[in-house]
Amino acid sequence: MVVDKLLDELVELYPVDRLLTNKAALITYESDALTSFKRTPRAVVIAETQEEVIETVRKCHEYRVPFVARGSGTSLSGGSLPVQDGIVIALNRLNRIISIDPEQRIAVVEAGVVNSDVSQAADPYGLYFAPDPSSQPICTIGGNLAFNSGGAHCLKYGMTSNHVLGLKIVLPDGEVVELGGDSLESVEPDLVGIFSGSEGLFGIALQATLRLLPKPECYKTILAAYRSLESAGDAVAKVVESGLLPGALEIMDNLAIEAAEAAVQAGYPLDCEGLLIVELDGERLTVEHDFKILLEIIEKSGAYEIKIAKDNLERQRIWKGRKSAFSAVGRLSPDYIVQDGVVPRGRLSDALAEIKRLGKKYNLRVANVFHAGDGNLHPLILFNGRDDGALERAEEMASEILDLCIQYGGSITGEHGIGMEKRDHLPKMFDLNSINTMKSLHKIIDPHMISNPGKVFLTDVP
Amino acid sequence: MRPTKISELQELVRAHSKLSASGGKTKSALHNVSDDVKNLDLTGLEGVIEYNPSEFTITAQAGADLKQLNLILGDHGQYLPFDPAFIERGATVGGTVASGVSGPGRYRYGGIRDFIIGVAYVDGQGKRVNSGGMVVKNAAGFDLSKLMVGSLGRYGALVDCSFKVFPKPESLMTLQVGFSSMEEAVECLLSITRMPIDLYALEIIPRADQYYIYIRMGGIPETLISRIDRLRMICGDGEVIEGEEDDEIWKDITNFTWLQSGELLVKVPITPKNVDDLDKYLAESSAKRHYSVGCNVAWVAWRNPIEALDVQLRNIGLSGLVIVGQVDKIHLGLEKSNKFSKLVKEALDPGNKWVEV
């Protein structure tokens, strides 16, 4: 078999402990965080240098064997699902922080560097890396780039792509190319921008030049409890109308609160139906002024309990609850599907009401966590995989939620990407010309369809 | 050829084999095409399609006038954070996106690429292609919206662009501090850029024998003076400019009124690290220049033969783009094209209809 010939060559490239072919070792790589999909690769290579990655891609190209790059496997859309009998190129050990330049405010890092490690390395210089997906203690920059990951601070700070200035990539045919540079400005089309969020279909990012920001001088974080999700949503609308630009606006519902409290004891009120986290950040004088306006809005918004973080420790505690919500929900239910749709902010209440109705229709519980500032919903559809038909019902419900997002003029994905999960919804969001244009781009860059094939577009690749 | 409807534009595209698109032609160097190329004037596609102040989004046609757009946004206390340039000269939405030219105010929150959330364009086959959408957060499909930024019309004719917008700062104020050398000015600039101070613009402008730093702050009027005082402690004393005078200075900078007739305007992306070498050369050549966005871009007014600048940029390891003026070759310095850029062009414009200026 062709893949066996490839393996004979990979054996020359990797020591035995970094070329996994044994079934037991491969199990870890069969899924990512979207556990309903499982594929068994033929082999996993654990690369430690960029040269190893490049050489592996070249050999895969020569033998036309599909490969999937994988960071920490935290993708919630099946984006790093292996191709059956293909190769997985694991990048966790490609994790050097090559340089931090505090004067230019940039960090050059390899793709396997963990997201929060960037901020940790930048911290002594008073700088940080703004994109903060909830999986940031685990997920890697390469993965963030591939999916254009977001987090809780996207309205004000944008997504991963907005903080990447330059890339070194290996194309599916093994050619290495550098895109962008060190400057915030450019005199060419935004090639870094088109590569970001391409979900591994255009090759593999080896190294990125990241933009760092000065750490905000001051944070003011409020936790406000409401007797209904609608009133929490109304409060968000009032904050936005006031002309303030919060760093974050997050809402959790009762079920999500219950899970988070059981997991991390963030101090959330358990009887609350809608919990709002609002955060201002910036220069002290500005934040203190804006905070008075914010507090007045929240006090008049019908919150029955208001907590203001009095120091960084309390602030971290508030965020710990929110950021642990997805994993915490595992306590409530053996299985769940988390959706990632976006609706215009003004339609959040309608969307939540619909989700509640769909929960009754499908007889499934839903915990809701969402980025109220940018309309990005995360309904966590809870089910027990052992119950007959439960997974199918959950998937149907998830599909109806995506249809709803399209209907409301939103998006089927705010930050998790299409991956495997939403391939059949992409053509509902974009017309045929637009899909064909994206496919043309894909086909020219990867004519043999070996770079993370089967993702994003419906194809017959297994 | 000036279509006023997208269907007319599509017909024109299908009927011709070599095309270029234009808006207000404020970036004149980008329109120097040969006679066999048909120019499509998109100023007839000039409407605002949708504006949702509460969603922080606006969608406008490519030919929409940016000055008008700014006024509409301003009425709702909002603005385009990438601070579009040349708006007093008639810059349009599509031309600004295609040229990738942001103004100094982009320093605060980001450039065009950070605020464009969706595009529609007509490709070489006359088909309308959409990317992104009208919501501020979107990871669906390939990000063709970003690709259009700085694309100089090589993939198609933009018809609609959607942007994220932000609340406008209530008030603005500038501190101007003079230094006797570029070195000192850059040193002061670097001491500010790492601080957690929220600046709207940060320029270095050489004038006479001095190097002036212009630092623009925005926010609530009551706090501005105290915040400026904090900057004074770092940079040294300087002149505080506010109100109409402040507006005028930044209008001049953003509209390049300092560019004289006969001068070429060249954009050179830089970083604070490589600005010294460039400045020495430009000073020796007596070229007027502004260093914008915290020394991330040099704007150069060039009179001498362009070849000299081309060679020097290459020697320093920089690339440049002639934005205003008439030259045969607008791409200067280091060659930026690579295999990936060629594949993208081949995929999106297989018929090679859209001229690469």
Strand-helix topology:
The complex is a heterodimer of chains A (462) and B (357).
Chain A: H1 2-13, E1 19-20, H2 23-26, E2 43-46, H3 50-63, E3 67-70, E4 87-90, E5 97-101, E6 106-110, H4 115-122, E7 127-128, H5 141-147, H6 154-157, E8 164-170, E9 176-180, H7 191-195, E10 204-211, E11 213-214, E12 218-226, H8 229-241, E13 248-253, H9 254-264, E14 274-282, H10 284-299, E15 305-308, H11 312-323, H12 325-328, E16 335-338, H13 348-362, E17 365-371, E18 376-383, H14 390-407, H15 426-429, H16 432-445
Parallel strand pairs in A: 2-4, 3-4
Antiparallel strand pairs in A: 1-2, 5-6, 6-10, 7-11, 8-9, 8-10, 12-14, 12-15, 13-14, 13-17, 16-18, 17-18
Helix pairs in contact in A: 1-3, 13-14
Chain B: H1 6-15, E1 19-22, E2 38-41, E3 48-52, E4 57-61, H2 66-75, E5 78-79, H3 93-99, H4 106-109, E6 116-122, E7 128-132, H5 144-148, E8 157-164, E9 166-167, E10 171-179, H6 182-193, E11 199-207, E12 210-219, H7 221-235, E13 239-242, H8 243-254, E14 264-269, H9 275-284, E15 288-292, E16 297-302, H10 306-316, E17 319-324, E18 331-333, H11 339-348
Parallel strand pairs in B: 1-2
Antiparallel strand pairs in B: 3-4, 4-8, 5-9, 6-7, 6-8, 10-12, 10-13, 11-12, 14-16, 14-17, 15-16, 17-18
The biggest beta sheet of chain A reads: 7 strands, antiparallel
Biggest beta-sheet profile of chain B: 5 strands, antiparallel
Low-confidence stretches of chain B: none
**Biggest sheet: strand arrangement of chain B:** 3-4-8-6-7
What structural class should be given to the helix and strand makeup of chain B?
Answer: alpha+beta
Helix content of chain A: 25-40%
Chain pair with largest interface: A-B, 95 and 82 residues
Tally of DSSP β-strands of chain B: 18
The first-to-last residue Cα distance of chain B is: 19 Å
Using only C-alpha atoms, the radius of gyration of chain A works out to 22 Å
Domain count of chain B, please report it.
3
Compute the number of structural domains of chain A.
4
Number of helices of chain B: 11
Uncertain segments of chain A: none
Question: What average pLDDT do the residues of chain A reach?
Answer: 94
In the CATH classification, which architecture of the largest domain in chain B applies?
2-Layer Sandwich
Shape of chain B: globular
**CATH topology (fold) name of the largest domain in chain A:** Uridine Diphospho-n-acetylenolpyruvylglucosamine Reductase, domain 3
